[in-house]
Design brief:
By secondary structure, the protein is α/β, with parallel strands linked by helices. It has eight helices and seven strands, in the order ααββαβαβαβαβαβα.
């Protein structure tokens, strides 16, 4: 029954909601070029997708964040439902880093561009560094938070090694970086599956890690710390001593 519900109800409804809300987002972009209205539409889209999927996501640790501050958010990535969950439960204006190839897809590429999301060119180390520098500039100059999946893509099990992009952006922009963990989403929609299960997931938010005054040479150590923090949050553990 769960698979039939997913196939006959949840999936078609998700497709319909995505088309309708995507169209509204594009129309909103004709009026608001800042991306803020599009982000509000995306938050509603995220909540609607969770509702259509009968997925309940509880956020823990929101009180650790200053609603007026700018952050670099990092999270694990295991499911296509991660993005709707983060949009629905993270009460901040933020932009994603998206693979450059996605910007070539009709409709999706237009939405990403008009909403102010940031393309990442991974064709070479130099191109990737340029993308990260542009991201740091946007964070610093526009006072806009960004969200990255430092694993570089969805992971079918466990937690992959983190790339240094998030640490680089946070240090260069001089803003705190926030480790987060989505717990339980992989079980509800595993990588490579079309069987969308109903159930509960948790977004655990860790303590912001300040980067003001930190040298770029510290990005490797910061990346390792972020990995440990996300791993701890996934396991439901306590912060490292002295943090």
């Amino acid at each position: 029954m769960s698979f039939l519900r997913s196939l006959l109800f949840s999936t078609p409804l998700i497709a319909l909601v995505t088309i309708v809300m995507g169209t509204l987002s594009l129309l909103a972009s004709l009026i608001d070029r800042t991306g803020r209205t599009q982000h509000r539409v995306a938050r509603v889209w995220g909540r609607m997708l969770l509702g259509a999927s009968s997925i309940r996501v509880r956020a823990e640790g929101i009180e650790k964040l200053d609603r007026n501050a700018t952050y670099v958010f990092v999270a694990n990535h295991s499911s296509f439902m991660d993005i709707p969950a983060l949009l629905a439960r993270l009460p901040f204006q933020f932009r994603f880093f998206a693979k450059k190839g996605l910007y070539r897809i009709p409709f999706l590429g237009s939405h990403l561009n008009r909403a102010g999301h940031i393309p990442v060119d991974r064709s070479s180390p130099r191109a990737s560094l340029k993308s990260m520098s542009e991201g740091a500039r946007i964070v610093a100059q526009r006072n806009t938070s960004v969200l990255l999946f430092p694993e570089g893509g969805r992971c079918p099990e466990g937690l992959r090694e983190f790339k240094e992009g998030a640490a680089y952006i946070a240090i260069k922009a001089g803003v705190p970086v926030v480790p987060m963990a989505l717990v339980g989403m992989r079980r509800l929609l595993p990588m490579g599956s079309i069987h969308l299960r109903s159930g509960q997931a948790v977004l655990r938010i860790g303590d912001p890690i300040p980067t003001a005054g930190m040298a770029l040479s510290a990005r490797t150590a910061l990346t390792e710390r972020l990995y440990r923090e996300v791993e701890r949050l996934l396991a439901g553990g306590t912060p490292e001593p002295g943090q």
